[in-house]
Amino acid sequence: MIGGFKNITKIPELQKKILFTFLLLAVYRIGVHVPTPGIDTQALAALFEQAKNSLLGLFDMFAGGALSRLSVFALGIMPYISASIILQLLTVAVPHLEKLSKEGEAGRRKITQYTRYGTVVLSIIQGFGIAVGLENMAGPTGLSVVIIPGWAFRLMTVITLTAGTAFIMWLGETITEKGIGNGISLIIFAGIVCGGPAAVVNTFRLLSTGEMGIFFVVILLVLMVGVVGVIVFVESAQRRIPVQYAKRVVGRKMYGGQTTHLPLKVNTAGVIPPIFASSIIMFPATIANFIPHPWMQAVAGLLMPGRIVYELFYVALIIFFCYFYTAVTFNPVNVADNMRKNGGYVPGIRPGKKTAEYIDSVLTRLTFSGAMYVSAVCVLPSILISRFNVPFYFGGTALLIVVGVALDTAGQIETHLLTRQYEGFMKKGRMVGRRR
Question: Is residue 167 predicted with pLDDT exceeding 90?
Fold first, then answer.
């Protein structure tokens, strides 16, 4: 592991990519602390202190603390993720978008452009909802969160929050293109990780005052370590389908004849399902939190982490996105055709359609297992911790995203090292399971 990190210093291009990524993430963290004009920050902070374990606390965690400060990045990257979900769903239903998705790089650029437009539209809607809701809210002391309510404040808030989300979107895409990759995921990762030191300090403060027992803290640490261990193990797990290549003679040389395997990950979708599911739940729940209507408040109360309605809805969305994202990113028919063209076959399975059906059946069972694993990791810790009233938001969702993004990023760095004939992070073998 240490040798792998030392090898990074031998590749100037990789050093520049990592430094560039850290620089843009630092810009993002600076923007989190730039407040939106017209807000009483003390009243807003007191309001979020009461809602730290609610859905607003979860949204604030994904936004890296920007929502509780109502900074220019308060909406975070969630509008972009929501727009991506909508475009991916429409790609299956709308023939024009489906055609674009098959046109290669030009089609993908066009879909990306549509996603950006959708991000701006969703940001305007969410920004206006937040502005109107804040005008009707007051802190625990009775002070209004908004200093001077009115249309001037609403328009300024909408413009500020929309511009902030557009800038984060640009940061994420730039990190993906010129940095180490996974720009959007790294921004969410940075937002979650930056809340860790404050949570640790707060835990020690509660220990010193006797509000939290040492036994409970030990149990919490054991639970977190256990969840991290399960995540690392399952994210690296594969189902290997044996593939045999027939011998063929080209000129005077003989090719093929070797036995290899087709690796299928247990969790093919990675951290995408919980991110997408959280984004879908947050959009109506956030609007409901800011509308002072009894029916909307009842909806907001049901969509809180730890409530049975929220958890069931969350699990259903995770399962859906596990299957949906796997279907979008992995096509068994194409894999079977490529194997047949290269003289490959699965022992005991006829090449072509039968091979595609076999791969699809194996992938379906694996996706179900992966969906159950992701659901358990994301839901069970949240339910357990909500019963003990932990003074900071902790859930398997955050750990899954943090560990998953860390493994993805380490895998990309290792790829850079191995392509330049340097040892990766593991001396006895490459990290498996993070790339197809």
Answer: yes
